[in-house]
Amino acid sequence: MQKHKRTPVPSPTRIRLATATAAAAALTAGLVAVSASSASAVTGVARADADADFNGDGIGDTAVSASHAYVGGHAEAGQIAVVYGGTVSKKYTTISQNTAGVPGSAESGDVFGADSAYGDFNGDGYDDLLVSAPGEDVGSDKDGGTAAILWGSPSGLTGGTTVADPRPTKHDGFGGPAEAGDFNGDGKADFAIASENGSATVDIFTGPFTRTNTTGRHTTLSAAVHSGDGAGIWNLHSGDANGDGSDDLIVNGYSTETDYNANLWIPGSTSGLSAARSQRLPTGVITDLGDTDSDGYDDVVIGNFWADSNNKAESGAVSVVHGTVSGPSAGDTQKFTQETPGVPGGSEGGDGFGAEVDLGDVNGDGHLDLVVGTPGEDLTGGADAGAATVLYGAADGSGITGSGALFLEQNNAYVPNTNEKNDQFGSDVHLDDLNGDGRDEVYVGALGENGSNGALYPVRVNADGTLASSSGIYTSTLGISATGTPRLGANFTD
């Protein structure tokens, strides 16, 4: 969603963790076998309809951050937890900069895992994981930031290689927003990295990559967003919105034109990304891309928790901007709020509907569905208990609809745990098939759970739309230190 940078937010409890919050702790002893989940595995560039497969077993995997985790006694050093899918059981491991083979070492404020992206960067058939640590001190450069590729293998992610900052004197916070995609359509995964210090420049690295840190071409792209303290680029996302075979880049940041938020569509081509052909999209904080209406063009889903609906401040809204051969700005736009017919609940101030979004196929009908996080939802149990809503794709493939929407809260039967004040269930959301049954499970982060230790809740949906039993994943499950505020579930790899 990306999903994952330091973003201006209305309150510390209603955030999408567009702040740079990282995740995951020191390597746990071995892999922990747990109850089943699911996945269909695809190597290569991450897409809305493809799951990461780090160990090449044909079952999808995912990763989730715990950005502010203590590691080796160092505050906010950060870890990332990897969930390996399986038809019988899932396995977990946690990775930090103290893990053998991972570049660097855990230090206070590194926020390792603040953002991450996946793709088969060296073309060996195993997906790899790009992980950022924007608070890393690089030599004498305080908070210069860094990023590393963790390499996929038959045994999962193992070892890593530093991605050298090509412009170390030009910014701090390198590695803040990161995203993978095939921006030149050559079939090889590329990635884009920005910095979280207010810069408006994106570094584009062209694949293939190697474990010895050789890469293809490096270029820079200047986005039409305001740079400076508290501004700059907040999030990056990719997909093919004009159907030309090259992934495009969505840049989310701060607009001087509106003194608010800007979304830019920057098209890919055989020669790479072209800022000169960029188009402005509706405002929002987080996006995802996928072909929701089955017309061959990826659509841009935009979550905007700042939006006012029904005269309620920051109640939130989600827009779906449909792709066309001329790009998404030429397409029609759907808008969803909690006032949309069929969508459960009602718009209330501070709900933050659209704080997180993700596309996948929950019911296995071959059409994309949309899950929306609402971490500021007040429910029985307390303020900001949080919720998530699944908006299904229409049976005829015509697009996302409010009809038959599924409302998820921790007081639902078969959703683990119970509603509590400030849990912020829905702080991040992710759809992934980690048990290979052809239907995506709904993974919901709750960064405020247990005093901001955070938690991850897999929600399994049966083919008939009813819920199946599942278990929560906590810092204790993963061996992450509960000291401080780890914020597990703040950010999934998409």
From TrEMBL:
<feature type="signal peptide">
    <location>
        <begin position="1"/>
        <end position="41"/>
    </location>
</feature>
<protein>
    <submittedName>
        <fullName>FG-GAP-like repeat-containing protein</fullName>
    </submittedName>
</protein>
<dbReference type="Pfam" id="PF01839">
    <property type="entry name" value="FG-GAP"/>
</dbReference>
<keyword id="KW-0677">Repeat</keyword>
<dbReference type="InterPro" id="IPR028994">
    <property type="entry name" value="Integrin_alpha_N"/>
</dbReference>
<keyword id="KW-0378">Hydrolase</keyword>
<keyword id="KW-0325">Glycoprotein</keyword>
<dbReference type="Pfam" id="PF13517">
    <property type="entry name" value="FG-GAP_3"/>
</dbReference>
<keyword id="KW-0732">Signal</keyword>
<dbReference type="InterPro" id="IPR013519">
    <property type="entry name" value="Int_alpha_beta-p"/>
</dbReference>
<dbReference type="InterPro" id="IPR013517">
    <property type="entry name" value="FG-GAP"/>
</dbReference>
